[in-house]
Each structure stands twice: as C-alpha cells, then as structure tokens.
Amino acid sequence: MAWLTIDREKPIPLIRQLFTELRANILRGDWQAGQKLPSTRKLAEELKISRNVAVDAYEQLYAEGYIESRQGSGYYVSAGIYLEQHARHGTDAILSISEASTDSTTSTIDFRSGVPALELFPRTTWGKIVQRVCQDAPLSAFGYGRPEGRLELRQVICRYLYRTRGVQCRPEQIVITSGATQALTLIAKVLLTKGSSVVIEDPITQDIQTIFKATGAVLQPVPTDDLGLVTEQLPGTEAHPPSFVFVTPSHQFPLGGTLPIQRRLQLIRYARETDCYIVEDDYDSEFRYDSAPISSLQGLAEERVIYIGSFSKILSPGLRLGYLVLPTELVERYQNAKWFSDLHTSTLDQLSLATFIEEGHLEKYINRVKKLYRKRRQTLVHALERTFSETRGFRILGASAGLHIVVSFAGIHFTPELLEKLSDAGVRVYPVEEHAICPGRHTDKLIIGYGNVSEEKIEEGVKRLYSVLSF
Ligand SMILES: Cc1ncc(COP(=O)(O)O)c(C=O)c1O
Fold first, then answer.
1. Which CATH topology does 109-121+364-469 take?
2. % helix, strand, coil for the chain, step of 5
3. From 118, 246, 248, 283, mutation site for ligand 1 pocket: most ligand atoms within 8 A of C-beta
4. Which end of the chain is more exposed for a tag (fewer CB within 10 A), N or C?
C-alpha cells in the first residue's frame, strides 16, 4: 500500500498517523463512497504494524463518520465525505504546516532533563485499568472527595514506600497532590510567610526557588558538591532559624550527588538543634544504576522530614500525580491547604494509579524503563568520553542515577550566545548556572537529560555539541 506512509521516527502515535493518512485519502476522493477498505489484518501485514493499530485507526474513522461498518463484511467509505479542490489545498496546507513544525522540533535534539521515555508509557495497561475503574468504582468516586485523597491510593503508596524507600508512615500521614510542584506550593503556603528563611541547596531547580520566594521568604543558599549538600556549610545554629532545609538527597538536582550517611545525620542534627523541618524532594530516586536505591532521609527522622514523591519521572508528568508524607502534627494544616487549593486531585486518576501499583504494574514498568535508561546513559557517557577525552577539564558528574548527567568543561562559559550557537547547530542543552542562587560558580557546566532521547539521537547530539565546542 504505497499510498500510505507510516514514519516510526515521528513523535506522533502510529494510530494517529494511520488515521490521518486514511482520512486524507477519503477527503481527497482517492477512496470513493461505498468503496471497501482493506481488512485490518491485510493493512497491518502490509504496513508492518500491529493489528491493534489498524483496528484502532479504523474505529476512530468509524467514530468520526468517515467509514461505516457492514455486518460481517468489513468497513466501507461513507457517502458525502469528498472535499472539493479548494478546501483540499487548505487541508494540505494545514498538514504540511503541522509536519513542518514537527520536523523542525524533531531535527533539533533536545537534551531537556526530567522528561521520561514518553513512548514507553504503558498505554494499553493504563487504558484498561482506567476503563475498569470507571465501571467498578463506587458512586462516591464521582462526587466530591477528601482533600488528602483516596485511602486506597494512600495505602498502596505507604506499602510501596516502605518496601522501596524505607519510608516509615501510615496512610493518615499522606496527602495526594498534583505532582511534586503542588506539594512544594502547599509547603510554601503552610510554612512560609514574608521574611521566613529557607536553607536550600545551591544550585537547585529555578522553579523551586520561585515557588519559595513568591511567599516573601528569603533563601539561604548552601553550596553542593559531588556528594550533595555541603553540610559543614550549613548556617550556624545561633543564626535566625529557618522554617525548613530543602534537599534532594537521593539525587541532587542538578549536580547529581547522593548525600552520604554522615551528611544526612549532620543535617538531621542541625534540624533538631534549630527546631526546623527538612523537606526531602525524592523526585527520581528509583533510577539508580550502580546500586539499589538509597534509603530515604525520612526513614531516619520521621518527625522532622516532609517527604515529597512524584509519579512524573517513573510514569508520566502528564498524569500530575504526586504526594506528601508529613509528620503527624502537620497533616491537618496540609489537608486544609490542599482543600483551599483545588479541593482534591481527580478521584478516578487516583483509583487508577492505586490499581496500577497494587497489581504490580508500576514496579514491572520501572524495571523495564530502567533497562532502557541504563542503555541511554551508557551511550551518552561513552559518546561524550570518546569525543571529549582530549578536551582539557572535561568531566562527567552525577551519572549514577536519574535521567540526566552534568558535564563540566573547565574554561568554557556557557553564555546565552554560546547556547544559541548550540541551538543553531541543532542541539539543545541546559546550563547549570540557570539554577544557581549565587551566580558564577557553575558557568562551565551543562545539564544533559537523556530519558526521552533515543540512542541514535544521543550520538548525533554529542557530535553536534562537539561541532560547536571544538572551535
Ligand atoms: C527536583 C525536582 N523536584 C520536583 C519536580 C517537579 O515534578 P512534578 O512533575 O511532580 O511536579 C521536578 C521536575 O522536574 C524536579 O526536577
């Protein structure tokens, strides 16, 4: 079927591509009213796609009225679908614009960090669970719910966290949020006012700085090194006590360090002496490549730590699902804050996720994607080492975990002009300096995310990086 083209490299699902191609044939009049469509089996064989893709594309055409089904005989083009020449040009123009824009985005290799492998999202399993939950959920699931979220989900998260992260908690200590971002916003609302102080890793995600600063709080940056927060440089305990210390101890963002136990204990001692909380952002700790995931800080000091978890990296950021694990005395204040914010997170999404975890799909999925990330990480590290081993001051940091690494090129400053040159060469990389609170220390470092970049593109991206940096 030479008239149908399917491009596996395009970031458009195959079902959508096939549907669009078939629809274009019908609109152009290449397929006339009453004409029989090939069987889904034949179509799948010819295009070397799964039969489900063909069935789904036909069902979409059927649902939108382009084709009709005749009992036991297959699908036929519906009557009156032909679009005249004038409109046809319009359609072509729209298609070519959307393709052009897709092409231009695919031709640039984007090493944005924190994006998981979107193409691996378990659509079929998730879809079946959503359907099942929708059929079986009690009536209460369709009404207003509790701000802390469904007990079913809080119970499975509790068991999951204990098993995988050593987090000690009861379901009553959990509040379900719309991702870690909402958890951070709720923390800011409950614990910060104008003039509050937050001790925080430097560098740290720009967005997190913005969320805390929006309350009028003052950030007290503490430098991070290859191991994470440099606890020796925490402010003196006699200084104005902070409301909390913010850390990413499993995998510092962006530098990638893992906080060693000695520093963890020092941090806990500091929090006890200053009577403040520790906010532990555990955004991607499942992905460790050289050892088992590191136990949480929360498990060492349940009464001091506010633990943030997210399903954005281990499943999909589009789901917007995360949670807070709170010391008991804070629970009620966070339930109120969540209620004020958006009443509660979507109940059907919560129940679907609970089922997904309970039936073992999450851990199976994590194991599957971890293999892929390990390969992508290896490809990236090898390509960088091969290409830049002769470059003075070249160093890779934080490669043992997560979905990104940091590369330092001593002597090179990643100015906006240099980043633009890289972008013009078709490779998008992100400067660590963008996340610095005290400027000037990290101008030679780049964040390179690999979670959502194929091995082929990683190789090509490193070549493009070299083409600019070698001059
Ligand atoms: C350190 C860190 N915390 C939290 C988040 C936010 O995650 P979410 O998508 O769950 O809001 C991110 C996003 O990349 C992150 O890098």
1. Aspartate Aminotransferase, domain 1 (3.90.1150)
2. 50, 15, 35
3. 283
4. C
Q: What architecture is domain 14-102?
A: Orthogonal Bundle (1.10)
The answer regarding whether domain 123-361 maps to CATH 3.40.640.10 reads yes
Determine whether the shortest distance from the Cβ of 181 to ligand 1 is under 6 A. Answer: yes
Ligand 1 geometric centre to CA of 152 (Å): 24
Domain boundaries, the chain: 14-102, 109-121+364-469, 123-361
For residue range 33-88, what is the model confidence (pLDDT) as tens digits?
888 999 999 888 888 889 988 988 888 777 767 888 888 889 998 887 766 644 33
Ligand 1 pocket: which of 111, 115, 157, 181 to mutate (most atoms within 8 A of CB): 181
Q: Pocket of ligand 1, candidates 185, 202, 208, 310: which has the most ligand atoms within 8 Å of its Cβ, to mutate?
A: 310
Judging by DSSP bridges, how do beta strands 218-225 and 197-202 pair with one another?
Answer: parallel
- Which residues 6+ apart lie within 8 Å of 18 measured at CB? 4, 6, 47, 49, 53, 54, 57
pLDDT along the chain (471 residues), means of 10: 72 79 82 88 88 86 80 86 52 34 61 95 97 97 97 97 91 98 98 97 97 97 96 91 97 95 95 97 90 85 96 97 98 98 98 98 96 97 95 91 95 95 96 97 97 97 95 66
CB contact at 8 A, 255 and 290: no
* Å from CA of 68 to ligand 1 middle: 46
Task: Tell me the two tokens of residue 34.
Answer: 């009453």
- For ligand 1, whether the C-beta of 147 sits within 6 Å is no
